[in-house]
Amino acid sequence: MPNVRPVFMGPRLRRLRRDLGLTQANMATDLDISASYVALLERNQRPLTADMLLRLARTYKIDMSDLAGDSAAEYTGRLQTVLKDPMFSDIDLPPLETEDVATSYPGVTEALLRLYSAYKEEQLALADRGAESRGGADRGADAPDPVAEARRFLAARRNSFPGLDNAAERLAQTVSGRAGVIGHLRARHHLGVRRLPSEVMVGSTRRLDRHRDEILLDDSLDAASQTFQLALQLIYLEMSDEIDAVLREGSFATQSGERLTRRALASYAAAALIMPYSAFARAVEARRYDVEALARQFGASFEQTAHRLTTLQKPGQERVPFFFIRVDPAGNVSKRLDGAGFPFARHGGACPLWSIHNVFRTPRQIVTQWLELPDGQRFFSIARTVTAGGGAYGAQRVERAIALGCAAEHAGQLIYTQDQPDFSAVAATPIGVTCRLCHRTNCTARSAPLIGRQVLPDDYRRASAPFGFSDS
């Protein structure tokens, strides 16, 4: 007969009792057991039997999955991910011990996870301040940067928020039973949807009109953008509490930084509503991460789908970790997300040898490229242009380029590398993080001297590279 591991749920039982406003004596009376036995259960000195689970469910009219659900598995996965950090490499941390901590002490586990996230944010903030001082930023080093605050918050959590994914997936199931988002908005919130010309919207793409109980959309938006804006409005209506709970884990120096982060989390949840985690995770494997095919399957845009691919790191259901960057023709970075360990420059643009800067010559065509950093790390990336705006004659269009990439060891899972035996990491393009930190001194594309190296005079010799450097 197989060994059945006893189930200990003391902290969750204690939380349930407190949520119900009961003392141990009250609960003991309700369950027809002694108060001392309730105390033993809450201290994990006795296992919670199947009979006791049934009593709890019948007595307090709760779903057993609410008490004995998969939150322990999620906590275990998150804790194991954190404990893979190199700072813990010299500590023996058996998986069974990690699971015991996450299962038996969810409060302690949550505290450790929050502490680690705060540590990562401070690490990134220190890197930002160091980059500013080395680069000689014009503004004061102590001046808060709202965009950097938002980026640090997302980067410290690898742009993965399982709680939002779970809530959005439940909402997606409800929405699908009501003929989609529009039907759900009408049934649940008594809101209609109306599309109006751009001149009537006066600079807005979406507006909630409480006076007429309507959501107004700019009729120049394409189908994917309209779907996303409706999903985003629904998220603000139904998932604000979940978003605010995630937001409380961060520390913000500016109100703008907090608002930008809240907007990013709402967009994350809207994408999770359109592309629910479980269904999307299955689809990416079936389609071998074909961004265009996935976009059509879920009615999303190329950029929305690429963005969603960076979020697939739910503990226990991880897929290929990706990084994402978006730039304009001038090289300005307007979005940067990392789930693959790519060392983005904290300030300034990306390497000009990266294909993301060249795809403006071939609009809407996917360009693949192997990349090799100075330290030998190799990545595979795809780049393509995307268009925002337009939708009518004379309407302003904004062309940007996006790149989506992963570490070399995962590239074989992508459709973009199949049937190309000669296309491998051996032919990687040598790039740098940014010119001031790149040690490839002979690069002819260099735009700035390397920090820490003296530039040689060119009185008698001019190197083929823009700058010649001394050996020390």
Brief overview:
With 472 residues, this protein is α+β, with helices and mostly antiparallel strands. It has helices at residues 10-19, 24-31, 35-42, 50-60, 64-67, 71-82, 95-104, 106-135, 146-156, 162-176, 180-189, 198-201, 223-238, 240-247, 255-274, 277-286, 291-298, 302-309; strands spanning 192-196, 206-209, 214-218, 323-327, 333-338, 367-372, 378-389, 397-407, 429-430.
Structure description:
The protein is α+β, with helices and mostly antiparallel strands. It has four domains: 10-69, lambda repressor-like DNA-binding domains (434 Repressor (Amino-terminal Domain)), CATH 1.10.260.40; 148-318, no CATH class; 320-431, Beta-Lactamase (2-Layer Sandwich); 441-472, no CATH class. The protein is built from 18 helices and nine strands. It has a six-stranded mixed β-sheet with strand order 5-4-8-7-6-9. Strands 1-3-2 form a three-stranded mixed β-sheet. Strand 6 and strand 7 form a beta hairpin. The longest helix has 30 residues, at 106-135.
